[in-house]
Amino acid sequence: MNMKDFVGAIERSYEQMEAIIRSLPFGTILTDLDQTILFHNETVQKIFKRPADGINGEVLTTYVDPNLLDGIAEGTNIHIDFRGHTFVLRKEHTTINDQLYYVYLFSSVKGLEEILSASSEKTELLETVMEFAFDGVVMVDKDGYITMLSKEYAEFLNVRVEDVIGKHATDVIENTRMHIVAKTGKPEVADLQRIKGDYMIATRVPIIKNGEITGAVGRVLFQNVGGFNSLYKRVKLMETELKKYKGEFREQNKATYTFHHIVGDSDSIIKAKHQAERAANSDSNVLLLGESGTGKELFAHAIHNAGSRAPGSFVKVNCAAIPPDLLESELFGYEEGSFTGAKKGGKKGKFEAADGGTIFLDEIGELPLHMQVKFLRVLQEKEVERVGSTTSKPIDVRVIAATNRNLEEMVDKGEFRLDLFYRLNVVAIHIPPLRDREKDLGQLCLHFIEKLNPIMKKKVDGISKDAQRLLHQYKWPGNIRELENVIERALNMLDNGTVINSEHLPAKLTDTPSNHSVELLAVSIEKAEKTALMNALKQTKGNRSKAASLLGISRSTFYEKLTKYQL
């Protein structure tokens, strides 16, 4: 390195280190290997009682005993007497462009020892300060306007230093918090910051002069763009490994849907959505009632995502899918050695996994009676006890349960505990079946077509009128789930067409008359009876005895049919 490059490197380091050293609460001096003072802060000026820049260029041994300086080991503290006071002196080294320099820290005995030992956070902050000169640095004034930007940081941001000086930090740096630190005076150490689609690690500290916040200085964890990209790749590799081992947990414990995913404008579904939106604003237990396939899980996702627990876990449990002998350990977890085959170290259960979030218990009506007792205790005491443990752990969980069974009838039969029913039935929401949402049928069909088109590489854009008629006359016992199944089947039956026709629908929708002839006859008879009763009453001007006589039936039979048809 020639002298020009050497000096340039030092000057750039001064520019970056100046703000950091000035902001430190103790005296700081930067020297070369000959202990010539290159830079110091105001605290040093006060200790040595010299004017600004008065000791730059002087040798530190002028003020401190050379034997002490030569004898101090790096990273250790010694006590020195100076001008009638006792100070702690600490020596560190730093490397700038492969050149070695010394950093000396001066403080009162109490001051430096507190900084170095009072808390790990302060110690970590001090260690990071020693590395500031190597990295991209930005400095702002108290209002958040940039006063200095290092060359490394400018290269990473793809800007010119001279163009951004004087601009507000938020106009130059994505997701910056420099202006916030300059306002609050609170340091932020090792904070993740996303810039240009990548993550970097930023540390920000306030600049304090005479007890007042005059700005802030921040650094990023890279020496140059290449070094940062290398670090980013390593982080991404670790993230990939983490997903490999924990991907299943994260996938199963995340709420995917919101209220925007609930399709439909019918009165019944709008009513259910409004009830669910109100329930999302509280932590009360929710009970979702409805037939299989109506979308109860979708509502559970939406309630969680719309509430204050959205950042927490959303743990799904299908009570009917877990064998009864495994249900307790799955829900509550177990300790090591609690039974044959128990994992080393034990395992936390679903309730612990949902701590701070929501647990969704689907098919709650299938919960065995002995498990209902344990579950009730969790709801009442807000604590869970693992299998094989003698202690309980407090948990903070919001419960959303769902069932397609009539729990009140189960309570009457002794199949479901009454006290548990009341605990769950705080906010009950009935999800309507598809047969009560005929207005939504066309909208739902188009929704599923749009959803399945890219997956199945199709270009379907509609349904023929004949196919629509068949869809509307079907009763949909499987509800929304069955409708999606029918639409997916129809797309599979299409070759290159863009419209779903009746021939693409399953036989259960197209072969309706022969399967329901008896039912249709009964309905026709009832309609005929009702019409005859109404005509007879109309002809006799409401005289029921005469009407019965006209119809050729007894008065008692006539009254029975009036009651049946509510006439």
From TrEMBL:
BP GO annotations: regulation of DNA-templated transcription
Keyword field: ATP-binding, DNA-binding, Nucleotide-binding, Transcription, Transcription regulation
Molecular function via GO: ATP binding; sequence-specific DNA binding
InterPro entries for this protein: AAA+_ATPase, AAA_lid_NorR, Homeodomain-like_sf, HTH_Fis, P-loop_NTPase, PAS, PAS-like_dom_sf, PAS_fold
Boundaries of every Sigma-54 factor interaction domain copy: 262-492
Record field: transmembrane: none
Protein name: ATPase AAA
